[in-house]
Design a protein that fits this description.
single chain, alpha/beta, Rossmann fold, 2 domains, 8-stranded mixed sheet, 6-stranded parallel sheet, 15 helices
Length: 420
């Protein structure tokens, strides 16, 4: 099968271009590699967002990236990607008329608009993954501009495409709230490279009896203030916070300053370490150094960090939201907490710390679940099943349309009778 993946970015952007842009770029790249490994011919299309980028390059056997000239070769300010949809659609249309894919899979609403415009006169089904929806970000007070045009267009795209691949059951529920039929939506989560993230790495030295790890945004909705406020009741535990800008740029980050001030005021600054952004190649080592992955986030659309931590044999203690609610089997691979109940989070962590054997058992179960449910080979296979279903639906629609057109066309006998 020839598969076209349309995304905002082929690789994680160097500059901020939306809170979940990096996670989405990693998701697309990993999915592309997994689809290519299954024998499909995959092309990822993304905007050229840096000078000197080639028109195309090979990323892996069977996987190619094409970089589209649309706007300046620089990062687009948050809230402005839709301004280049027409240019991207024109490029895609010309490209696909020469070499038509069997399926188009768009990631982000702007990519969906471009893909739908490019395939308007082509018999190619379009599948859509949003990852994060504007209505959900607005409700959970995720930082950044939430344009009304985005919310309207996400609904329009979801209604127009052949199928929607939701990353979480929460997202599928959001689709239902937008009036999208359940038959059109399939939940296929993000995955983990279980060959890189595994439970057999040696743990590094630590400064406390137990090490908690959080990976993600430093923004308020990530719930880091809740984790810091829990530390006074968790003696002997240290918290490693990975995320935000690079470590040498943390001092100029407003969110970091607020969190650092809070940690100092709580008297736990000596047990909190901010390590900034961690490159993907270094994540396995960071995860292997921890005992638990923790999150008090109000909203978590991808959850790649938690899934990778599980693959490394780390239990997850998190709010029961988004991908965490899907990935964590409460009481088996970790613990889920009702959002907005920080006292319950503290109690569950204290109980867990008091029974180290349970931490070990949860970790073994977490690794087993990650290896069975979240390897990219399985995610890619489930994605292909959706592609095939959408192709079949497209064929059926074409046949019905042709039959309807034929039925509406008068027969030669009827025409002759009318003439007589």
């Amino acid at each position: 099968m020839k598969i076209a993946l349309v995304a905002r970015h082929v690789c994680a952007p160097a500059a901020p271009s939306g809170l979940y842009a990096a996670e989405q770029a990693e998701h697309v790249a990993d999915l592309g590699r997994a689809l290519a490994a299954l024998g499909h011919k995959v092309v990822i299309y993304g905007r050229k967002d840096a000078p000197g980028m080639p028109a195309r390059e090979s990323l892996a056997p069977g996987l190619t990236a094409r970089y589209i000239k649309a706007g300046p070769p620089a990062p687009v300010p948050v809230g402005e990607p839709h301004k280049h949809v027409a240019e991207i659609a024109t490029y895609l249309s010309a490209q696909w008329r020469k070499d038509m894919p069997d399926i188009v899979h768009a990631h982000h609403w702007t990519s969906g608009l471009a893909a739908l415009a490019a395939t308007r006169d082509l018999p190619v089904p379009v599948v859509q993954t949003f990852g994060s929806l504007g209505v959900a970000e607005q409700r959970h007070a995720v930082p950044g501009p939430i344009q009304s045009v985005r919310i309207r267009m996400e609904t329009a795209v979801a209604r127009s495409v052949a199928g929607v691949l939701a990353v979480t059951t929460d997202e599928a529920a959001e689709m239902a709230g937008l009036g999208i039929p359940g038959s059109k939506v399939k939940v296929v989560p993000s995955g983990a490279d279980t060959s890189r993230f595994d439970p057999h790495r040696l743990r590094s030295r630590r400064h406390a009896d137990l090490r908690l790890l959080h990976i993600g945004s430093l923004a308020e909705h990530a719930g880091l203030s809740t984790l810091l406020k829990a530390l006074p009741d968790l003696p002997g535990a240290e918290l490693i916070i990975a995320g935000g800008p690079d470590q040498d740029e943390l001092e100029s980050d407003i969110a970091y300053k607020k969190l650092g001030k809070l940690a100092a005021g709580l008297g736990v600054a000596d047990r909190v370490t901010f390590i900034g952004h961690v490159a993907s190649k270094n994540l396995p080592a960071v995860m292997s150094s921890a005992d638990l992955f923790v999150s008090a986030a109000r909203y978590e659309p991808y959850g790649a960090a938690a899934i990778r931590a599980m693959a490394c044999g780390k239990p997850v203690v998190a709010n029961a939201v988004g991908s965490h609610a899907d990935a964590v089997v409460d009481g088996t691979t970790g613990l889920l907490v009702t959002p907005g109940r920080p006292e319950v989070l503290v109690r569950k962590l204290r109980d867990l710390f008091a029974t180290p054997v349970k931490i070990m058992a949860f970790g073994i179960a977490a690794a087993d679940r990650a290896k069975s449910r979240y390897p990219w080979e399985r995610i890619a296979a489930e994605t292909v099943t959706v592609y095939e279903r959408c192709q079949a639906g497209q064929t059926t629609t074409q046949v019905l349309a042709a039959a309807q057109a034929q039925a509406q066309r008068p027969t030669s006998q009827a025409r002759h009778g009318q003439a007589a």
